[in-house]
Amino acid sequence: MIGMKLGQYVYGNSLLHLLDPRTKILSCLLVIFSVIITDNLYFLLFLILLMAAAIISSGLSYQLILSSLLKLRYLLLFTLVFQGFLTPGETVLMVGKLSMTREGLILGLINISRLVILFLGSMILLMTTSSLKLSAGIEYLLLPLRKLHIPIHNYTTILSISFRFLPTLFEEAAIIKNAQKSRGAQFDSSNIAVRIKSYTAILIPLFEASLVRAADLGEAMDSRCFTSHPNQLRLNRLQMKRRDILFLIQMTAVLGTGITISILL
């Protein structure tokens, strides 16, 4: 786990690692659908506990994921405060002419739980599935769109490249941030303008480095005669096994039961 980067595939032999990528993609879509359709806070907390159990059972670094989640604390706090002050209801706190309501705080906690679930779910998917298998799974699921003459292979190639370079992008951002700190950048300043200026010093060189890497990758693909035509011959074809079917059935049953109970309550 030393030197592991957020979003990077982590080799393992857990159940989630061995599942077909299509199974994990469909499970994530089921979770997203469940998060969107329900607003029951208890059910959302159950999903968070389910995600935590999946992270621990897969042998992923929960310290790394938790520390990355803590970096989103300002976004989560802003969501809570925004909903608290703009939702009408029973007042629990007055700040000038603005009132924070009980209903707003509950709605803010619900939205925070949704964001946490989406973050954890995406990290589990990326860190238990290699980029090649993930792109292959997406391509298989989108095969029916070929009848509409949609270039599925091109889109999945773009996605696989994006998944591959996401960890590298995070690592470069950390390197640039440390370099700017050594030059006196104040990322923890109490002045918002100073902090925005400091983070701008990260975004500009990171964007430039991404363009350079994209140009180099394009030249490398051209030199290897890459074409947009899909490769019909694969060394390892995706094949759903019994455990994949059972996992999807269990996920559908658990989420369906939770949604039903949430609606009835």
What does it look like?
Strand 1 (91-95) and strand 2 form a beta hairpin. The protein starts with 14 loop residues before the first helix and ends with a helix. It has helices spanning 15-18, 21-37, 41-57, 62-70, 73-86, 102-128, 131-141, 152-182, 192-223, 242-264; strands at 91-95, 98-101. It has ten helices and two strands, in the order H-H-H-H-H-E-E-H-H-H-H-H. It is 70% helix and 3% strand. The chain has 265 residues and is mainly alpha-helical. It folds into two domains: 1-130 and 239-265, no CATH class; 152-227, no CATH class. A two-stranded antiparallel ribbon has the order 1-2.
Strand content is under 5%
Structurally, the number of domains stands at 2
Strand order in the largest sheet: 1-2
Average residue pLDDT? 82
Cα-to-Cα separation, first versus last residue: 43 Å
What does the main sheet amount to?
A: 2 strands, antiparallel
Number of helices: 10
Note the overall shape: globular
Structural class: mainly alpha
Rounded to the nearest angstrom, the radius of gyration is 22 Å
Could you list the spans in which at least 5 consecutive residues all have pLDDT below 50? none
Q: Strand-and-helix sequence, N→C?
A: HHHHHEEHHHHH
Please count the beta strands (DSSP E, at least 2 residues each). 2
Classify the helix fraction into a percent range.
55-70%
